[in-house]
Write the structure tokens for this entry.
Amino acid sequence: MKNLLVSLCFMLFCMPTISIAASVNPVVADKSPAKPAAASLERDEKFIALGQTAHFNVSDLSCEGDVGAKELWLDGMDTGVRAIGCDAEQKLLVFNLTRTGAVVNKQTSEAWLTLLRRPFAANDGRAFERDVSISLRQKGEVFATGSGKLKLLDKPQVWEGALILLAVLGMLLFGIFKSGLIRDSGLPPDGRKENRPYSLARVQMVWWFAIVFISYVLLWLLMRELPGIPVSALGLIGMAGGTALAAAALDQDRPVPKTKGFWFDISTDENGVTLPRLQQIAWTSLLGIVFLSQVLTQLAMPDFDASVLALMGISAGTYLGFKVPEKQGGDAAAAPEPGGADDDGKAGYGVQ
């Protein structure tokens, strides 16, 4: 009987204690990384665009620390754009999407080059916009993610740029085909302005003006800010203008022959095709194509080094130097004897 009572007491008071102890599990801290908060544009903002301010609603936003350390990444690429405002109460983070004042380096430049490439067919055939993923980072850690649309070109701004280009290029074309913008001054023997020969120096001056102007407008449309013009581009425009002025001065008192066609006029003098002229044509054409290619692929005007400018200067100087004997020959042939060169000849004259 005594043993029975001991057994009952053990079951009543000791077994629950053992059962409770067995049901308690140790608490293990969750070491998995926190899920990034959701980021979305303000309700009235439909696009992210260069030159505009973007407001992001970020759940669980913290404004502690340096606000400028918060980074905007698009499609996994650092744009160089940093936050300019943070409101933890409104859960609002503000970015000014401009490359002026942004972190500009090789990485961010390549990011914008990738984002802005092919603006006229950027997203499944839809012009002017591209779907992008958005991530907000600080000290290398992603604290918010989302998605949105990047506006590459603004249609009103495209129309403005197109009108500017059409107006200026239209005036250039009118000058070229109707008013002799790229022809020599003076009149040929038949007295008709449309028969004046073409001038290599003036063609070169118009060429560089058109290339730099078109590049400037295209970069303004894409980057939403006025692009800088490299010193080398200014040097090329100035060199072309100086060459045209010097050539005009050398040909001032020279008889004007009748044109024999664009290519013949710019590549020949009284001795036929000359190396200085071909050199001018070749280098001017090549550098112009490289210039436009750089603008379209790198979204920046190329800054040619000093050796390229020196090469163009040497080419221009050689071209002008060979015009001096042309002028001397022209002075000697100012009053040709009967039986000399006919009106269509180029004897005694070097086309500018």
